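[step 3/7] fold_predict: job queued, chain A
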Amino acid sequence: MKRFIPHIAIIAAMLIWSVSGIAVKYALAVLPPFTLIVMRFVPAVLLMFIVGMVRRNHSLFGLQRLQWRDVPLFLVAGFCQPFLYYMLETYTYDALNSPTIAETLLSTSPLISPIFAAILLRERVTKYNILGILISTAGVFALTLAGSRSFAIGNHWGILLAFAAVSSAVIDSIMMRKAPARYTSLSFVFYTQLVSLFFFIPVWFWREGPQAIYNLQLTIDKSQFYIALGCVGYLSIFASVTAFILFCFALRKIGVTQANAFNNIRPAFTAFWMLLFFGEHMPLVKWMAMGLIILGLFVCQKQEKVADY
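[step 4/7] structure written:
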């Protein structure tokens, strides 16, 4: 049972992240994008600092002092994700006509991660990893594209932006794997998100600034604002802290390729939440697509037998 703990942790992370898109949608109806990001990550960083200092000696939630020789690693990780990924993701949705196509392209990290893991980490990629990723990715495409009628791409730069976003997320996961074992999962997430804030805050001042918050008081009613705050609270505590720590813990145990393969299950979870809470129609092809995703994950986690000589 103990060997399944990382898989349980990463499934929990995907469940949390699968609701994030819904929460972001409601929050963006009220808050400007960079204001939302800053309001999301400032409390997350403060929460991790408090928990990390209180549970300093805990193997998962302790906060270790950052050593100077590790600063470049955290600078790269924090710049790649959340900062660069969120920026590229935003412009991807803006450049592509179809949100469905954008979502599909942004779900391709499992296809890219084995290449990065093999080159940068010398991580062994098995035939089961490749086969499982291909099966699961086929399910993602079927799930997100089923029922779509408009396939106009729009600005073709959007495709490059999408793959750049995915690559930045994979590089962040590589940094998680390369981080020294002395840093707990909370420490890694805390330092990367702290670095990201140093990039986000100047952009926020440039694009929106404190004036954006003042303008909100003049243009929206309190009920809308409270709903947005609830969404920000979810994104901050669960999506930015809990899910990232669970993902970091699992990735360190099972590797970059297998961990990123679970990203394919996020659209399936999102579709389930939309069915459960919003009554969104789920045709048979989408149920079959979800089955493909789950099958692919099982295949991806299968271990090759080592022959005895």
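[step 5/7] annotate
The mean pLDDT is 84.
The radius of gyration is 20 Å.
exit 0
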